[in-house]
Specification:
Strand content: 5-15%
Number of helices: 10
Structural class: alpha/beta
Mean pLDDT: 95
Low-confidence stretches: none
Largest sheet: 6 strands, parallel
Distance between the termini: 9 Å
Helix content: 25-40%
Length: about 240
């Protein structure tokens, strides 16, 4: 069965991070689209809210009149795709979270990250305020985000990232509409992803459990598997997105 995907990127990325995955999906007979959210890509460095991100993805979907698709989001996009699904519910067949944030109603990303991550954001907010931009240090990206890549690949991917507004980490999110939405859900967990380290703060099962009944797909790979193994990510998306 042919599937259509709308793929939503994480923080500091843009829609081009899915290029390799889209090529693999097309090779396997599927189609995919990858919008760039507000405040990212060419707009990186500009102040944005979660609502701006939602609006930009919804506008992209409506402009192309996309229907009967699987809506998938990675990392930060976990706080965006629930409200996108709510806005275009009649068009969405399934919502897939790939090592993505799943928040409770009224939470923000800051509420679910590790104490060390909170200290980093506290220092930034104190120094520059909530309109400051932030960017991961390379050494953190290398060891926690793309730990399955060689140094050259890590450097090349890091050069593509762009700073984003720190406000996005501290904004409270309304999840009530999505919680009421009767749409199938899936959670993809790449088991070598230590952005949220294994244990109390791990992606899985903590985030997946918040979705209620959902399909779980687990594969080996890092947070940046869209770059390091796009073929495997495409296969995981198909497994997670099938009816």
């Amino acid at each position: 069965m042919k599937l259509t995907f709308v793929l939503v990127h994480g923080s500091m990325h843009d829609g081009s991070c899915w290029d390799g995955v889209i090529a693999e999906l097309k090779r396997l007979g599927h189609s995919a689209y990858a919008p760039t959210m507000a405040g990212h890509g060419e707009d990186a460095g500009n102040f944005f809210t979660q609502a701006d991100c939602v609006d930009s993805v919804v506008d992209y979907i409506l402009a192309r009149d996309l229907n009967d698709f699987v809506l998938a989001g990675h990392s930060f996009a976990g706080i965006v795709i629930p409200n996108v699904a709510e806005r275009v519910a009649a068009r969405v067949n399934r919502v897939v979270f790939q090592n993505a944030m799943v928040l409770e109603d009224g939470q923000c990303i800051y509420d679910v990250i590790t104490p060390a991550h909170r200290q980093m954001f506290d220092a930034m907010l104190k120094k520059e305020g909530d309109r400051a931009n932030w960017m991961l240090p390379f050494e953190v990206f290398r060891e926690a985000f793309i730990n399955d890549a060689d140094l050259k690949t890590a450097q090349e991917v890091y050069a593509r990232l762009k700073p984003v507004c720190v406000y996005s980490q501290n904004e409270k999110i309304n999840m009530q509409g999505f919680q009421r939405l009767n749409v199938p859900r899936s959670y993809i967990n790449f088991t070598d992803d230590v952005v949220l380290p294994h244990g109390e703060y791990a992606w899985y099962p903590r985030m997946a459990a918040r979705l209620g009944l959902c399909r779980v797909v687990q594969k080996p790979g890092s947070h940046e598997v869209c770059y390091t193994n796009p073929k495997l990510l495409a296969e995981a998306l198909i497994e997670a997105g099938r009816p």
